[in-house]
């Protein structure tokens, strides 16, 4: 499941359309600001590839919109995806603290055998890793179950690979031009 | 009792045999009585024949009801007549038949279950592919069915027969059959399937066994990709701040890029402030080992030494469209 060339093209097209919108604002600025604008546009282009069908893309657009709302809105309207910014994210599930504490107490009361304890330990390790994955994938905290989280992670990784491929090829091309 | 009521009838038809007389009697009381009885007999004979399928089973189940109706419709005083006694005798026989039939059906069901057990693996795969709440529903049905397994009620047997058409997931021997544990099992299978896909996608993940280790590797990979994007965007900002690149070069490179790159973490990266997160989070070793990062220290040094020299492209933004078309043309679209 490697990123396909059609995905690369689509990303490149969207990204460059976005960069064109950014162009006047990043012409005479510092390197850091330019970098920020480039990253922002790349993120939005990547997220807009999925057309709001995945949770992570919506979360990513929302995140970038909080950083620079005006530019993101402009860019999304430039690539004809204005609707993406208003896509709703799933609601965060809130646990009742009292109930959670009580159930933990009940669980602790049971005496466990050695094998059960080992299984519980492995479970805890996996749970911590899953939590880490939630923090890494945009919008991961909102994904209610592990199956959905893994699915979104798959999609996110493919998109990231596309982004890296395209960016790297452009960097290489630019560097080759300098050498000439 | 019978004689008193049928007295006038007996006067009319003295030549008839007892049975014929009784039939006439029945016709007199209830003209439509004959037809269900005939159907009844025909069915019972077929039941005695032994061959059972779904249709016959349901037909047989309707028969007691017919019988009950006829007794209600007919006069209660008729019960003494030879015809009806014959009927009840037959009914008893038939009851016995239905019992044996139930057993047969159960046997058949068991056979079917064995078959499904054999096909279990295949169906599980299809289940996973479907990946819908539908499958859970089916499994719930299945669980219910197994609860009903020991019941003798024939109506339940027919319900089961109807349900057996869409069983897909079954518990293996020794596995729990209640809906919760089956749903949990399906969930776990789905997760393991997704993990398998991730294993294919993430380089270096196929050597690791165990879910925790794999999740670690996935997190590392995602973080390294994110950092790579950060780094590449920084590089782009330094190299070329404008969106109009020379497209021909990009296509030449596009083909090469798909092959994995070697890792050379450069000292420049540390200076430029993009690798400090990497060092802090302790992932630098993994990145060196598994080849996530592609950095050419020479080029990096070159570009960072004079970042302004590269703003040398004099192409106007209006030329953009032709470049894009050029790009797609050379990519073979």
UniProtKB/TrEMBL annotation, chain A:
Residues 5-66 form the IBH1-like N-terminal domain. Its main location: nucleus. It is found in: Nucleus. GO terms for molecular function: protein dimerization activity; transcription cis-regulatory region binding. Keywords: Nucleus, Transcription, Transcription regulation. One of its GO terms (cellular component) is nucleus. The keyword Nucleus applies. GO terms for biological process: brassinosteroid mediated signaling pathway; regulation of DNA-templated transcription; regulation of growth. The keyword Secreted does not apply. This is Transcription factor. It comes from Arabidopsis lyrata subsp. lyrata (Lyre-leaved rock-cress). The lineage of its organism: Eukaryota, Viridiplantae, Streptophyta, Embryophyta, Tracheophyta.
From TrEMBL, chain B:
It comes from Arabidopsis lyrata subsp. lyrata. It comes from the Eukaryota. It is found in: Nucleus. PROSITE patterns: BHLH. GO terms for molecular function: DNA binding; DNA-binding transcription factor activity; protein dimerization activity. Keywords: DNA-binding, Nucleus, Transcription, Transcription regulation. Residues 175-225 form the BHLH domain. SUPFAM superfamilies: HLH, helix-loop-helix DNA-binding domain. One of its GO terms (cellular component) is nucleus. Residues 74-157 are annotated as: Disordered. PANTHER family: STEROL REGULATORY ELEMENT-BINDING PROTEIN (PTHR12565), TRANSCRIPTION FACTOR BHLH63 (PTHR12565:SF467). Pfam families: HLH (PF00010). InterPro entries: bHLH_dom (IPR011598), bHLH_ZIP_TF (IPR024097), HLH_DNA-bd_sf (IPR036638). This is BHLH domain-containing protein. Residues 96-105 have a biased composition (Basic and acidic residues). GO terms for biological process: DNA-templated transcription; negative regulation of innate immune response; positive regulation of flower development; response to blue light.
């Amino acid at each position: 499941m490697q990123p396909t060339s059609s995905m690369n093209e689509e990303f490149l097209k969207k990204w460059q359309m976005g960069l064109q919108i950014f162009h006047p604002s990043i012409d005479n600025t510092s390197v850091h600001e330019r970098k920020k604008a480039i990253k922002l546009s790349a993120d939005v282009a990547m997220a807009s590839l999925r057309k709001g069908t995945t949770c992570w893309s919506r979360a990513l657009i929302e995140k970038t919109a909080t950083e620079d709302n005006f530019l993101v809105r402009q860019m999304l309207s430039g690539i004809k995806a204005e609707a993406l910014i208003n896509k709703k994210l799933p609601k965060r599930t809130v646990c009742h603290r009292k109930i959670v504490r009580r159930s933990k107490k009940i669980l602790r009361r049971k005496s466990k055998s050695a094998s059960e304890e080992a299984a519980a330990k492995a479970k805890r390790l996996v749970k911590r890793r899953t939590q880490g994955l939630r923090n890494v994938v945009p919008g991961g905290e909102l994904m209610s179950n592990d199956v959905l989280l893994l699915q979104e992670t798959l999609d996110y990784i493919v998109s990231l690979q596309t982004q890296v491929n395209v960016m790297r090829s452009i960097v290489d091309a630019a560097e080759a031009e300098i050498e000439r | 009792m019978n004689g008193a009521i049928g007295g006038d009838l007996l006067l009319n038809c003295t030549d008839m045999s007892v049975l014929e007389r009784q039939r006439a009697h029945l016709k007199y009381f209830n003209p439509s009585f004959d037809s269900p009885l005939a159907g009844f007999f025909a069915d019972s004979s077929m039941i005695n024949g032994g061959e059972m399928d779904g249709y016959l089973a349901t037909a047989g189940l309707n028969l007691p009801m017919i019988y009950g109706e006829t007794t209600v419709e007919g006069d209660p005083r008729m019960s003494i007549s030879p015809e009806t006694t014959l009927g009840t005798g037959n009914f008893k026989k038939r009851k016995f038949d239905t019992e044996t039939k139930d057993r047969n059906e159960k046997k058949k069901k068991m056979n079917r279950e064995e078959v499904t057990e054999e096909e279990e693996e295949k169906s599980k795969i299809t289940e996973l592919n479907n990946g819908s709440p539908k499958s859970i529903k089916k499994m719930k049905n299945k669980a219910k069915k197994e609860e009903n397994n020991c019941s003798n009620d024939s109506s339940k047997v027919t319900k089961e027969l109807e349900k057996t058409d869409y069983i897909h997931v079954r518990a293996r021997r020794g596995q729990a059959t209640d809906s919760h544990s089956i749903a949990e099992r399906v969930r776990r299978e789905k997760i393991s399937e997704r993990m398998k896909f991730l294993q294919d996608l993430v380089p270096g993940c196929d050597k690791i066994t165990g879910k925790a280790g794999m999740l670690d590797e996935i997190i590392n990979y995602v973080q390294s990709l994110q950092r790579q994007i950060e780094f590449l965007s920084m590089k782009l900002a330094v190299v070329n701040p404008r969106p109009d690149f020379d497209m021909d070069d990009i296509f030449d490179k596009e083909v090469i890029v798909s092959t994995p790159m070697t890792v050379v973490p450069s000292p420049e990266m540390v200076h430029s402030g993009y690798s400090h997160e990497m060092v802090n989070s302790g992932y630098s070793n993994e990145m060196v080992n598994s080849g996530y990062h592609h950095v050419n220290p020479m080029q990096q040094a070159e570009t960072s030494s004079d970042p302004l020299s590269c703003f040398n492209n004099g192409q106007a933004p209006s030329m953009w469209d032709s470049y894009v078309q050029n790009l797609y043309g050379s990519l073979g679209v």
